[in-house]
Amino acid sequence: MPLTKSVLIELLPATWPAPATPPASLLRAEKAGPYQMDVLFALIFTALWTRPPVRYGFSLADTWAWMRYIPALCSSGELRLCEAWNSLDPHQKTVLSEDFGVGFTTWFLYRELGFLRYSDTLWVINTLQPGAFQLGPSAKRGQRKSPDYIAEDRHGDFSVLECKGTQASRQGLINAIKRGIPQKQNLQAVGGGQLTHSLVAGLFIPQFHSAEHPVLIVADPERPSINEVLGRYSRGEIRRGVSQIAYAKELATLGFAQTANAVARTKDSLERVDDAFSIDLQMQRPERSINDDQIVARREYVWDAPTRTSDDLLIEGARFEATLPAVEADQLRRCSSPDLLGERKRDESEGNDWTAEVDGAEAVLKSPMGTTFRLSLLLA
C-alpha cells in the first residue's frame, strides 16, 4: 500500500482579490474532507525544491536531511509527528516544519493547480539579468524577503508562491501566512503578461499530543504591485529562465556541481556547460555510477532502530536514486551555452507532465525534463 497521510485543506477565500475567487480545484479539495497526501512524492519534492540550484561543496539540503525526517512521522492515518520528536532540539523542529511546508505544499499545488516546476525567485532574476522581474529591497529573512518561488503551470503561465510551515498550531500557521504577504508583494512585475496566482501557503503538522489536526492553508492576498505585466522579456524568455533554474536543481541533486553552477550562471562558474559537465564526469564519486544507458546517483540512509510509519509498514531506512538518461547526458556534453540549454529544456518539456508511479514502499517520479527520482523505504 502507498504511504499516505491525511491533511485538512483550508482556504482563506477573503484574501482573493475581488472579483476573483479560489480556483474550483482548491474548493473541491477543501470541501472533500481530509486530503490523502502522498508522503513519498511530497518528500521527493522536499528534496528537489528546498535545495538551491547550485552546489557549494557542502549542503544541508541534500538527501540525508530530508530522509532523516521519515522516522519523525507517527503511524497514525493523519500527518502527525511521533512522540519521540517532542524531545528534539527546537531548531531541528523548525527546519523540519519549513522543509515540509515546501515539500507538501508544492506537491499539493502540483496536484490541484498543475504547477510543474518551482524556481527560486532570486535565481531566476540572476539567470535573466538584468531580470524579467524587479524586486523591492530584498533580505534573507523578515518582511523584506523576496517570494520563494516562481511557479510555471501546465499552460506555461506563471504564479508566485511563498511557503510556510509550523508545528505550533493552526493559528500559528495563519499568522505566518499573514507575515508572508509583504514578502510576496516584494516581487513587482513590469512588462508583458500577468501572474495567474500569487499564493502564500503552508502546512501545520501537529506534534503527537496535540488536539489539533494537520492542515494545509492557502491564501491569495491582494497584490496591486504583483498582478502587473511581467518584465521586458518575452513569455518564452521567462519560461526559459524558470526551466533553466529548475533543471539546475535536478543536476545539483545528481551531484553535478560544476554543471549546475554553470546552468544557473553563478558567480565565478564556468561559462560553458559542456566544459563543466566534463569536469563533473571526471570526478570519482562512490554514490554515482555511469554506463552507456544512464547516470545514477544513489544515497542510502539507515537509522539506528526500525520505525513504524503506518500500521503495516515497519522500515529501517531509505534509499534515494536520481537517474539521468544517456540522451540527456549527451545533450550536456554537446551544449555550450547555459541559456541555449534552458531554451532546449523549455521546448522539449512543453506538454510534458510529471510521471508518478508507486509500488508499496517505493515511489518513482519522472520529471518533465527527463530526470527520474526514486525513493524506496527499506523494510525491516
Describe this structure in words.
The chain has 380 residues and is an alpha+beta fold. Helices cover 34% and strands 27% of the residues. It contains eleven helices and 15 strands. The strands form three sheets. It has a seven-stranded mixed β-sheet, sandwiched between helices. The chain is globular. The two termini are 16 Å apart. Mean pLDDT is 85; it is low at 130-146 and 224-230.
Record the SSE blueprint.
Layout: E1 4-11, H1 24-31, E2 35-38, H2 39-49, H3 63-67, H4 90-113, E3 115-120, H5 121-127, E4 133-135, E5 149-153, E6 158-166, H6 170-184, E7 187-189, E8 198-204, E9 215-219, H7 235-253, H8 257-264, H9 273-282, E10 288-290, E11 294-310, E12 313-325, H10 326-334, H11 338-349, E13 355-359, E14 362-366, E15 372-379
Parallel strand pairs: 1-9, 6-8
Antiparallel strand pairs: 1-2, 3-5, 4-7, 5-6, 8-9, 10-11, 11-12, 12-15, 13-14, 14-15
Helix pairs in contact: 2-4, 5-7, 7-8, 7-11, 8-9
